[in-house]
Amino acid sequence: MKIAASLLALDFSKLNEQFLVINKCVDWLHYDVMDGQFVNNISFGPDVLADIRKLTSLYLDVHLMISDPFAYADRFIDSGAELLTFHYEALSDDNSVAKLIDHIKSRNIKC
After folding, report:
1. Is the model's pTM score more than 0.85?
2. Phi/psi at 86 (nearest 5 deg)?
């Protein structure tokens, strides 16, 4: 069993002290990415993920709820993602889905 804490559930005014706790208590950090188009909410980008990586060595599970996951996959990988999840319906066809999965795996990242 793995326990994942969602970054969205944190109190951003207390990040440093909360990371002292979660770094000891959980296995993964779940990072939701929302672009305001694929879903109504807007959340975090790759630059915030790179800063979060500085606060933790936890496994970073990145959930792309965005209209064009192919355009951003590399940026999130470069920012520290260890697992990328995306929505197949954000891509135009099955070939695009397979192409993105192959690309993510070619970067030695789980998908």
Report:
1. yes
2. -135, 165
